[in-house]
Amino acid sequence: MKIIVVSGVALCTNPRVVKEADALAALGHEVTVVAALTDPSRQEDERRTTQGKTWQPLYLFDITNKGLRNRLYWLAIRIRRRLGIELGRRLGIRNHWELGYFVPELNSYCATEKADLFSLHNEGGLWVGTRLLRDKRNISIDFEDWYSENQAMHPDEYLKSMERMVLTHCAFSTTTSKALAVALSTEFNCPAPVVIYNTFPVIDSRPGHIVSGRLSVCWFSQTIGPGRGLERLINTIENMDGNIELHLIGKPSSASYLEALMGDKAYIQQHNLVAPDHLGRLLQSFDVGFAGELTTPPSRDLTIANKVFQYLASGLPVIASNTSGQREIAEELTDCIRIFHDDKGLRDSLAYWRNPEHLEFGQEAAHDAATHRYNSHESYRVLENLLDTLRL
Q1: Contact, 40 vs 64, CB < 8 A?
Q2: Selection from 112, 184, 100, 116 nearest residue 148 by Cα
Q3: Do 113 and 233 belong together in one domain?
Q4: Cα(96)–Cα(104) distance, rounded to whole angstroms?
Q5: In a domain, 205, yes or no
Q6: For residue 235, which phi and psi values (nearest 5 degrees)?
Q7: In the 3-class helix/strand/coil scheme, how is 276-292 assigned residue by residue?
Q8: Which of 9, 42, 124, 235 could link 99 by a cystine bridge, Cβ 3.0 to 4.6 Å?
Q9: Could you give the C-alpha distances from 51 to 13, 18, 45, 115, 282, in angstroms and in order?
Q10: Which has the closest alpha carbon to 288: 343, 233, 223?
Q11: What's the structural domain count of the chain?
Q12: Per-residue DSSP letters for 76-131?
């Protein structure tokens, strides 16, 4: 089958799309992934992400291409996006320009291509999907988040109307957790999306990290910013008796935020983002992973953060907040994931993993879970079954 995976963003920042393309290509399909690179600092990461793949990346835009024409084009794209956002925010005129930089270009490309399946991702993919459905094309849709429920105050009805259309008319849909699948099915009275967990390749051996009584806790994301549970974690550590260090991996949302967060706390270290294929090894140099996702908005509560599976693949036990999605996997992995409900629970979890025997057992359990229960082979099998139904 010829399959076009519609992303529209840098692939080094979208591991779920890359893993899907890997799985589809491994099953013998002809796969093209439509992307765009808008951050010149990620050029090398992007090269490493796509190097040696058996699928074809296709870039609608590459900011590293030199020349006045490319710079003017990028300026026009940014102006269009800003105009779209302001039209929606100030005048209530909702439009596809606000959904991403290259949504019109994604649609134009897909409209002219012949493919057996268009696999859609992100908010812009919703709008492209409605157009493809009108042309009676086969689409699948992946809900890495619940896009219309990604606002703290109220659902986005513009996105919700598109979600309803694509979910009720697509060939199949996928998502990240059973909790989110049930919520989507209930909301839109549609078949429940098939769950494909955000698993990562297992790193087979730990580099001999020695626990010396000082627990090293790590957290990572593209952005170090508010609304991620970091303030709660730091306040809890402050009220403990020391012997804990915290490592934050990511790009600060602002210098002022990072300064306010870290202050003069010597136990906190900030690390720059690393290439996706280096992240697992970096995580292995720490003891425990932290996933302090909030329970609002609903999208955050229902999904399972990528970082949980990345920690497990690196052999790290996890301290996770009590979201519906994270509870779903923690109930099956009680030996390596501890859920906290409040500040006392967070403090107790930190104290539990500070025990060397508990930590060693948890690390072994995490590695075993990523090797035998939550791995990319299962994703391959699920996708293969879905595509088999499409052929019928």
Answers
A1: yes
A2: 184
A3: no
A4: 8
A5: no
A6: -60, -35
A7: HHHHHHHHCCCCEEEEC
A8: 124
A9: 15, 12, 10, 24, 21
A10: 233
A11: 2
A12: HHHHHHHHHHHHHHHH----GGGG-TTHHHHHHHHHH---SEEEE-HHHHHHHHHH
What are 2's two structure tokens?
């010829």
Contact between residue 282 and residue 203 where contact means Cβ atoms under 8 Å apart? no
CATH classification of the domain holding 126: 3.40.50.2000
Structural domain for 187, as ranges: 2-199+375-391
CA distance 1 to 122: 23
CA distances from 250 to 143, 260, 278 (A): 24, 16, 13
DSSP reduced 3-state for 259: helix
Report yes or no: 367 and 202 within 8 Å, Cβ to Cβ: yes
Calpha distance 272→55 (Å, rounded): 29
Q: Strand, helix or coil at 260?
A: helix
**Alpha carbons 82 and 98: distance in angstroms, whole number:** 7
Q: Could you give the 3-state DSSP secondary structure of residue 140?
A: strand
Same domain, 188 and 289: no
The rounded distance, in Å, linking the Cα atoms of 290 and 198 is 16
Cα–Cα distance, 314 to 203 (Å, whole number) = 6
- Per the listing, tokens 């932290």 go with 290
Mind listing the pLDDT tens digit of every residue in the chain (392 residues)?
Answer: 999 999 999 999 999 999 999 999 999 999 999 999 999 999 999 999 999 999 999 999 999 998 999 999 999 999 999 999 999 999 999 999 999 999 999 999 999 999 999 999 999 999 999 999 999 999 999 999 999 998 766 779 999 999 999 999 999 999 999 999 999 999 999 999 999 999 998 887 654 454 556 899 999 998 999 989 999 999 999 989 878 999 999 999 998 999 999 988 889 999 998 888 889 999 999 999 999 999 999 999 999 989 999 999 999 999 999 999 999 999 999 999 999 999 999 999 999 999 999 999 999 999 999 999 898 777 778 888 888 877 64
Residues 385 and 367 in one domain: no
- Residue 122 to residue 145: CA distance in whole angstroms: 8
- The reported pTM is 0.92
